[in-house]
Hints:
By secondary structure, this protein is of the alpha+beta class.
Amino acid sequence: MIKERIIHYRIPNSYEGHKISEFLRNQGISTKSIIRLKSDVENVLLNDEPGFINRILKKDDRLTLCVKELESSKKIPPVDLPLSIIYEDEDILIVNKPANMPIHPSMNNYENTLGNAVAYYYMKKGEPFLYRCINRLDRDTTGLTILAKHYLSCGILYDEMESREIKRTYYAIVENRTVFDAPYAHRLLQTGTIDLPLGRRPDSAIERMVDIKNGDKAITHYRVLATNDGLSLLELQLDTGRTHQIRVHMQAIGHPLIGDFLYNPKDTHMKRQALHAGKLSFRHPITKEILSFTAPVPQDMQVFFPDRTLS
């Protein structure tokens, strides 16, 4: 079973005299992906003829790429699970992930993941699909997730993630009262920035902690949207994407997320951490169009702020 994605380019005047490889790199296509395209002379056509990567371009040349997917992820069994698709085209899939659903299968959770749900979706369509998740969410964090449908879009989107070109907005509910025995406790401002490096907690395979000496740089911006009954609803944006970044940063300043069993284990407001990836904006890997998506805050969070509609 083979799936092909055909991509057409018309060469502008500015690339006359340049090599095909130079044009492709300027489209965000990585060297690794170019090498993969070179593996078959039919993958790159210039004016409908084999277009070897070092050939020189002329204005109005027609460059065609054939991106082939030959197999599906072998270690992800298809399982009929809920799958909320926000958007799909030939290159990407945008999903609104529910709570209690890990991104990837693991030893203890092999058939209840987003990967299983996506594998089932494409099995029904009769298409191969190699699972490539770009922005990963914790098991109980809900919201928008990007999946790449072939290796070309995957490489471009990963580079966009690394360069922070993919903009993500989160919503969280935290304790409004300040827990003053937290290491960097202070009262919530209307807007604020948390700049505290994060690293692994030495005695845990899962938890992270503020590690001033050896941690990786982590920056979180927050804005208070509303307060109600001792809780605050926050809108957050990240300059970095460290594991558990929002959860650890908010705990460190004395305002942990409600329902967070790792960083706020005594809280009983919810059965999961109150964190939702609600907005997503990025440049399409192939068309270069700026795309924006929203996913409404789920009911288990919305119930604490019934007068505030977030989407």
